[in-house]
Amino acid sequence: MKESDLIKEIIKYDTPSVTNVVATYPDKPDICLGLYDPWSVNWYTDDSVRCLYPEMGRVAGHAVTCIFGAPSPGSNSLTFLDVLRALDESPRPTVLVIKNGFPEAYKRKCAVCGGNMSTAMVKAGTVGVISDAPTRDVDEVRGMGLQYLVTGATAGHGEFVIKAINVPVSVAGMDVCPGEIIHLDENGAVKFPRVHLAEVASRLKKLQKIEETRMAKMRAAKNVSEVIKILQGFES
Q1: Which residues have a Cβ under 8 Å from the Cβ of 145 and sit 6 or more positions away?
Q2: What per-residue string of b and e applies to 143-153 under the rule 16 or more CB within 10 Å gives b?
Q3: CA–CA gap between residue 53 and residue 146 (Å, rounded)
Q4: What is the pLDDT of residues 31-76, one digit of tens each?
Q5: What is the dihedral of CA 200, 66, 147, 190, to 10 degrees?
Q6: Per-residue pLDDT tens for 119-153?
Q7: Residues 6+ apart with CB under 8 A from 8
Q8: 217 three-state secondary structure
């Protein structure tokens, strides 16, 4: 199956399901790849960010990273146009991960994206943005097909620069390297290495069958004792 088809396949499932097959249950190797230690490695987002468009549903793509910040003496000459070029050069679809590199006094007031930037990113094949910063133009962006996982919204920003592009970043408790696959929805985001995409898709299908069977049996149970026996059976 082509990589683009595999990405379409994994967005049939929610982000918690993806975490389950990536690393949540390392003691269940039939369904879980065990790619990370579930607690000690930063492989999914925490509750510091929220999904702006839960009605849009799930998206997934290849990670492109950057760091936004305030101008300072010796700031480099990178601009958003360079970010746009990096998105265009990446395999599609992409998820842009923006690290908030602003001083503490501005971190909650720096709207990192708006209507113009979002329009440009969509043309470059971007389907999602994750940032530990706020954004703006929420209604203008709604319906563009660009999902946002950010800290919230704020109306403005001052002058900003791009500190770096396609470097490892840590955003909302998730460490991301350029080129990793990111899956996100209203529950948050999870990342995993691109090389495991086919296996993740395969195990998601298997997990869904297991969970559908288990929940159907619980719905048909006559009492809690039967539910407990069903759960014990699936735990063994």
Answers
A1: 56, 122, 127
A2: eeebbbbbbee
A3: 9
A4: 999 999 999 999 999 999 999 999 999 999 999 999 999 988 776 7
A5: 30
A6: 999 999 999 999 999 999 999 999 999 999 999 99
A7: none
A8: helix
**Segment holding 183, helix H or strand E:** strand 181-185
- Alpha-carbon distance of 92 to 61, in angstroms, equals 7
The span from the CA of 215 to the CA of 208, in Å, is: 10
Q: For residue 196, give the 3-state DSSP assignment.
A: helix
Between CA 31 and CA 48 the distance in angstroms is 29
Q: How far apart are CA 194 and CA 204, in angstroms?
A: 16
Planar angle of CA 229, 233, 236, nearest 5 degrees: 135
pLDDT band at 77 (very low <50, low <70, confident <90, very high): confident
Angle at 93 between CA 89 and CA 97, to 5 degrees: 80
Q: With left for phi above 0 and alpha for psi between -120 and 50, is residue 143 left, alpha or beta?
A: left
Residues 56, 2: Cα–Cα separation, whole Å? 24
Backbone angles phi, psi at 151, to 5 degrees: -75, -20
Instruction: Read off the tokens for 176.
Output: 């991301």
Distance, CA of 62 to CA of 220 (rounded, Å): 41
> What is the CA 77 to chain-centroid distance, rounded?
28
Amino acid identity of residue 174, one-letter, is M
> What mean pLDDT, rounded, does the chain reach?
94
